[in-house]
Write a structure and sequence with these properties.
The structure holds two protein chains of two kinds. By secondary structure, chain A is an alpha+beta fold. Chain A has 19 helices and ten strands. Chain A has a five-stranded mixed sheet with strand order 2-1-3-10-6. In chain A, strand 1, helix 2 and strand 2 (about 90-100) form a beta-alpha-beta unit. Chain A is globular, with a radius of gyration of 24 Å. The two termini of chain A are about 45 Å apart. The model of chain A is unreliable at about 10-55 (pLDDT under 50). By secondary structure, chain B is an all-alpha fold. Chain B has one domain: MetI-like fold (Orthogonal Bundle). Chain B has helices at about 5-35, 55-60, 60-95, 100-110, 115-125, 135-140, 155-180, 185-195, 200-230, 230-240, 250-260, 265-300. Chain B is flat and about 75 Å long. Chain B starts with a helix and ends with a helix. The model of chain B has no long low-confidence stretch (mean pLDDT about 90). The chains are: A alpha+beta, B mainly alpha. The interface between A and B is large, with 49 and 55 residues.
Amino acid sequence: MKKLLYSTCILILIAGSLAACSGAGTPVTQPPNATGAPATEAPGAQPATEAAPATGEQVTLTFWHTYNEDSPENKMLVDTVIPMFEAKFPSIKIEPRIEQWPNFMQDLITQISAGVAPDLIRSDIVWVPQLADMGALVALDSAMPDFNELKANMFPGPMSTNLWQGVYYGLPLDTNTKVWIYNPEMYATAGIQDPPASMSDLLSQCEAFKAAYPEDYYFAGVDVTAWSILPWIWSMGGEVLSPDLTTATGYFNGPKTVAAYEQYLQLFQAGCIAPKVLGDGQDTYSGMAGNVYASLDDGPWIYPIVDGQAKGKKLGAALFPAGEAGSIDVVGGEDILLFKQSKHPQEAMEFIRFMLSDEAQLKMAEVGVMPVLSSLAQSDAIKNHPTFPIFMEQLKTSKARPSLPQWGDIDTIMSDAGQKILREEMTAQEALDAAAAEIDAKLNP
Amino acid sequence: MTIKHRITPYVFLLPGLVFLAIWLVYPMGHSLWISLHDWKINPDEISPFVGLGNYVDTFTDSQFWRALKNTSMFALVTTIGQLILGVLVALMLNRIARGKVFFRVAYFLPVVTSWVVVSLIFRFLFNSDPSGMVNYLLVHGIKVLHSPISWLNNAETAWAAIYSLGIWKGIGFAMVILLAALQTFPEECYAAAAIDGASEWQSLRYITLPLLLPTIILVMVMLTIGAFQVYIPIALITNGGPLHRTEVVLSYMYDLAFHDLHYGSATAVSFVLAAIVFVISQAQLRLKRLSYTESVEGGA
């Protein structure tokens, strides 16, 4: 008996120390929600306006974002944009909070489970369906009376990232895409006149490059996640999922997707793509700055990073090489989301409107944040911007990643398949067949 | 004994028990409750009861078994490595007359250094670049390799980096405890052995090691429990890659909770891991009792 008691105590102590790591929510016996709405209600069906406080009182809104503390974007947000809003709405104070990218979701989940989510966040576009699916977000299309007016002025690509099961849960805050960034000096030395216009140019350009730079790499692939590999798949006419997002079989293992991976493998085997793509190796930006890598598919943030490592370094930019389906890259960017747990949804919506105004968008554009308003596309500030025009051109054909709560899982499966292909553990067809079946199991559990 | 005398000890125990209940028993019970549900992180949603479903999911997931195998290998390799090197260092430090404090501090320093810092340093050391320190030494320093190794891109070499970090960081811990034990051994035993003509090796083999065995087992238990909770070096050096081949139980559990949002399953994994650590620790402690009994009986 004594032994049993002793053993139980030891088990409790060990399990306690381990279980504490896994985090927890609040008990299910709590009331369903603040307004008494049934807990089984469809996500987004309950507008947050019900919980809105009386206007006129001084309120503070928390706004989470991931701009680095010393970045020009953060300085512009904190020193200019937020003060502009607070001057316009003296009764609303914005409390911005910087979250480190890798911890963002973990911190957010902890706050949601404790019932104290921030009022607003600047969210990665791929998190929207996941957060909407867990019932954490306010459906903005029913909560904001002027939603349709706002929506009409947005670029359709970024706008589509807020849609989940026919409901809009957010609005785009900023957008971006990637283009073919290259080192003109290395291209010239290798005798390459222009950046590759089509996929068929890649191998011949790489051969010319390797003749001049046998130790260096024509292209620096960051990894084989969806963000990196989708431009290759889409431009070659391939797909990951069916148009209704219900199946991967026949699409992710279809002939065009297989051909895209095979071409990528061919370039990797020829030493054109840097081994960094498998996970470890010289960082892409320092490699671009140090003339180790000659090309990269990347966004507008590359310029200050490379300039910080090699002052005055010249980089060229062109549309992503076109394949059978054209030049298609991935839409990136962030959306602004309002949480149901916000105690001040009306004031939060005012902040959303302000952040999507011409004045706020143009201010953020000054520090390289691409606006989402179609009304600004033809403005001098955007047309004459030193780097925006090529990205705006690419955005015309770029596509958003499928909007699904399971996207994180699908991305992992895609990355694993890409690794197996590049490591030559499986042929492209075998790896994609297996991955398609795995994705289908995630989509239809 | 008066009632006052009977109650007094419990009054002194009460604050500790309250803390234990709040910070250990309640979270533990709540975690157990979570592990029996398809837990929703949003408190506005109902979490359906699934019974032992999360435990069944854990045992039928091949990724869990791979993570458990990796964790067990990490525990085995690093515990043995730390013990062997810890014993050697402790024996050497016990013999030297000068610089004992310096070496004790030097060997113990990695133990108190942040896991995050040393993991990042090891990631830098084993970087696949030609400029990575280990590659540079092997290719350009001692010239045993013609081209750099892609250390962290292959599971076998990535494990070599992780194992070496685990062993290097824990030698000092084993050394300090073993050295403390060595210093309690009676000099008379060694003097008597010397009079009987025992060599240095025979003294080590027949006096030092048998006396040290219970402490070695104690250290082994502590190192094993610690090794089963390995997470930071994995997260920072390989992040479970390549292809999840360096995934361990805690990184698997973290992904379940914060990537897949399967809180119930993640909590179930924590209880399974606790049970495994408990069984292994019990087996090791039984071994300790056995070795102690044998040494006492042998001595008698």
